Batch of 2 targets.
Target 1
Amino acid sequence: MNRITTDICIVGAGPVGLFAVFEAGLLKMRCHVVDALPAVGGQLSEIYPKKPIYDIPGFPEILAGDLIKNLEQQIAPFHPTFTLGERVEDLEKLEDGSFILNTVDGTEIACKVVVIAGGLGSFEPRKPAIENLEKYEGNGVTYMVRDPEHFRDKRVVLAGGGDSALDWAIYLSALCKEISLVHRGTSFRGAPESADKVVSLAEEGKLNLILKSNVTEVHGGDKLEKVTVMMDNATPVAIEADYFIPLFGLVPKLGPLENWGLELEKNAIVVNTEDYSTNIEGVYAIGDINTYPGKLKLILCGFHEAALMAHSAYNIINPGKKFVLKYTTVNGIQELA
Ligand code: FAD
């Protein structure tokens, strides 16, 4: 079991969770950030990385993906640690007021303060309706590529027509023993240059591109051995596969947060606007996940909430110790060792 001890555990590595690391770091508090997705950035990385944003103070225009890169750079001096690709399942409050969080993959995080920056909830894969699919989850069926090396010299079938399916088809074609991309249409939703690259890889024989078709069955013993693809002409074709990776997008679900004893209203966590604390002392909720009168689901509102949260959390982590607010120009950015 992987055990991490930190001052603040931030659930959610979207823009607001990342900026919370900065605000906490200014007050010399250490953060560990957990996200169910394998990369940081939340909605900005997952839904609209190439969209320009016009309402970030000081940036007349910035691409969502670039804002996330800048936030990563801004928090680097505070050396946050990350657990990515793991959803936080449980939250337990101990008698001394501290917390233990557990992820779905067995990581345990001990902390003094919990900050939920969970956005719309954790993004869950949209699963195709295929009988027995869940039987092979973890044994050949996966919905995310966490480490591409895992697929080296394997036979992989990908399904989907968006950016993830195209990008991973291109990347994995150089690693896998055999790779097929099955797509129900003839045109792709993803970037045209990626679609062109996939077609040229198929023409070079480096990728098996199967259009106007669907994966309809999965087969094997304890592990996945093959999938059945229903071709355009209604003929079923079996393809031997060590892995089947359906990439049909992600849907946000409030998920496990629902069972943590938090006061909820319309799928959001009710907070006190003085410091964005929740009904559980030591647990804060910032960004899209919270609700209060006048709430706006905007990045800049989440940034403000992160600042107030950090000053309140400071009092829990440093009881009796006074912090005199100074500007970053006075204090500078003092790197955490
Ligand atoms: P998110 O970005 O949603 O990140 C939350 C993260 O928490 C996710 O990565 C999720 O996987 C993770 N998470 C949740 N639960 C768990 C769990 N149990 N365990 C582990 N991880 C978990 N806002 C603007 O200000 N300006 C804009 O121009 C703008 N344009 C937008 C355009 C689109 C198309 C969309 C969809 C939104 C736009 N928004 C915009 C809104 C903005 O994206 C959100 O306000 C912002 O993403 C909220 O950030 P966040 O960090 O609170 O949450």
Note: Residues 299-317 form the longest helix (19 residues).
Target 2
Amino acid sequence: MSHVFPRHTHKPPPTAVRGAGCYLYDADGKAYLDGSGGAAVSCLGHGDAEIIAAVQEQTAQLAFAHTGFFTSDPAEELADLLAEHAPGDLNRVYFVSGGSEATEAALKLARQYFVETGQPQRRHVIARQQSYHGNTLGALAAGGNAWRRAQFAPLLMDVHHIAPCYEYMLRAEDESAEAYGLRAAQELEDTILRLGPDSVMAFMAEPVVGATLGAVPAVDGYFKRIREICDTYGVLLILDEVMCGMGRTGHLFACEADGVTPDILCIAKGLGAGYQPIGAMLCTGAIYDAIKDGSGFFQHGHTYLGHPVATAAGRAVVRKLLRDDLVARAAWQGDRLSAALTERLGQHPHVGDLRGRGMFQGIELVQDREIKQPFAPEHGLAGKVKAAAFEAGLICYPMSGTRDGKNGDHVLLAPPFIISDAEIDELVDKLSGAIDHAIGSAAG
Ligand code: PMP
């Protein structure tokens, strides 16, 4: 009997024993092409000798020094690298151990900033429906995924959710993309005005929505308008790039493509590329200075903040991304992946939409393309695609939408940036087979 408490208690998973390049291998020797980098984590693939060496060297040199007493070279140097390459004046970096810790810290920093700058009445957070910001209570409250929240709702703080910018389902037929973006952003202003502008502390959003919608970027102009609205009312803009950041979309930071700089930016996943658990929250010098000139102490912390081995892994990952031009590779190999998906699935009767940026692509499955009607939830289509793909030796990330705001089933792809042309072909082959198999069994 296994004593591990697995995610799905009714179906224990196979044992993964080895990773190499874009593949994982289980104890029976079966190979799985990692088409989703787990969950948008393994941007460099598996078994990267350079990152492994960096982790080994740091472990031998200094495995741990508590940040209550010390800083460390890898933490300092990784922060320098991130600050140098981050947009605008996001020049202070707070290291944590993962995505939920990053978004949780961002919410607390926003609150402390207003307390320390004499605006303690600012307490409301606005976020978006069909978003995911993590599973700890604050992050879960900010997220707008009804299914994940349902049983914990009584424990969650009150967050106000507006609609996401989700062109495929929410743009009206006679509306231009630009007009739709402005309409979607207007919901933020309306909500701020309804709550009282002086009472809102932050708006949180993913620049490209990952798990919950499936690689959905905003239309051009949406985030620029969001930035303007936040500035008008003194609301902090928190962007969650836990999934879409660190080069995945073909920009080191996804918000660069939208031409905006947030006040606080959250990253994780690709930062450690799976070699170490690490996340980070970047904030502007202005926010940092408010804390420095106030109490001088961010009232937040975890034992493993700025962990030397985790930051050494992050430092090696970022150095490699930059030195080997892997962000540009994510952009052009992403275009190739997108073209291969369009060629194979563009006319598929149950593929409603193909979208994404770089190595972050989404496929939306619908029962009826004409009217964009999702499959009924009882089909459990996403789960069937996942199972059929896994059986065929492909790891992809399908999710069933919660049907709030109409979204149905989608598949998220987030392969390693090093994926080859032949591996892209294998991915698309196996995925389209799995989709057909799953739809066949959903219909039957
Ligand atoms: N934010 C986003 C956008 C995510 O996709 C995730 C994880 N899927 C998280 C936050 C939470 O990250 P973690 O699972 O590392 O806590």
Note: The domain at 51-323 is CATH 3.40.640.10 (Aspartate Aminotransferase; domain 2).
